[in-house]
Please model this.
Amino acid sequence: MISKALGKYVQSLHQKKYRQRHGAFLVEGGKSVLELLSSDLEAEHVLVTAEFVAQHRAHLPAHLALTISTEYELTQLGTLATNTTALAVARLPAEKPLPATLPETGLLLALDEVRDPGNLGTLLRLADWYGLPGVVLSPGCADAYSPKTVAATMGAFARVHVWERDLAAWLPTLPAVVGVFGADLQGDNVHRLTLRPSGVLVMGSESHGLTPAVESCLTRRLHIPRGATGGAESLNVAISAAILLDNFFRNQ
Amino acid sequence: MISKALGKYVQSLHQKKYRQRHGAFLVEGGKSVLELLSSDLEAEHVLVTAEFVAQHRAHLPAHLALTISTEYELTQLGTLATNTTALAVARLPAEKPLPATLPETGLLLALDEVRDPGNLGTLLRLADWYGLPGVVLSPGCADAYSPKTVAATMGAFARVHVWERDLAAWLPTLPAVVGVFGADLQGDNVHRLTLRPSGVLVMGSESHGLTPAVESCLTRRLHIPRGATGGAESLNVAISAAILLDNFFRNQ
Model:
């Protein structure tokens, strides 16, 4: 049974304003809730159907207080069209310091005004696949902890470190030896380069590309060759990032 | 001014049943409508705001009958949250014969039960970027001409050939020399192969992968290596296809 106060609290977390005020965010659906529970993140409330508990008892920590709920309640409180399994409230992770040596020892993904939560979630999932040390978001990006972003990460929200930085201010502070890579139709053909996963790969918004101030911070422009008979003018930002990341990680 | 009959007709095309009955589909938004008008597809009705006409007169064929509409009307008739520019009704293209020699002379993308129209549209856009001769869809895929798919193609709907085939019946009819490629965690590392763009690349649904009957038609299983410290279990179907296609096209 869900109290009125808990219901109101959960619903308030649909909005960024309340996620920030309460330092908490929503995790919806059984798969995402199980990823949360097996991660370092702290779960504040876990609402589950009796059926879900019966199916996943082995993966639910014994000390965990569960609130048994109906499918109707989970759907009412959340943002999914239907939720037949589980919903949790998790604490927003505190931002860890961004190690100054990082872009020399690993590849960071930096996103400049990526406003679509679906694209952002897909990019976080990609960062998780390649084991990137983290993702740096410009203040104009979609919220990494909005319900849509969390859903699109397919569980990666529980593992990927996220930092928020004004990219045009942050990138110039990096040591000169750090490569700052970006996609550019006039850039170097990635098929002819031997890239190593170190530095920062900056991806811009789909409609406007990189903002001029961030664009001017690039030290290396990369181009994904289009097929000889190809027609499309561009690729989706997550698709471009995937192809570029695969090119960074193929020479290990 | 839009007649009641035209309005009803346009709205009926939100549904596949009526798209098939009338042999027509919707194209929404200025960019997509301009792509339609510069393609070989036939536009049956073109509804535009006066502002859009003023801005794009040079790209609108002189013989074209335009119906001047308000933003409110375009939004009411279509599926977009707002449409301030244009909406067209296009004839569904007739399916051309699938040349029997094709998979030897070019790379076809085949999709097995890709049910999400956003993913399907992104995949068609990707096929357009690489200039693939076309995409073969299993009957269980999303409709290539649904409004959501068309929007996600970002204009590629006007250029990419689409065929519908029962993949488990069609793939075995291909000459033995044709490679039938698919993604498989136990497959060969694509970074260690020299792939050429010929044959068929089959991608399965995100939740279930390839159906068993299609999976058994593969002659070559490909694996996209995950980062050494990567956490994600899988990649989105369009992301996987993008990385694989880049690996097919890098050795030209």
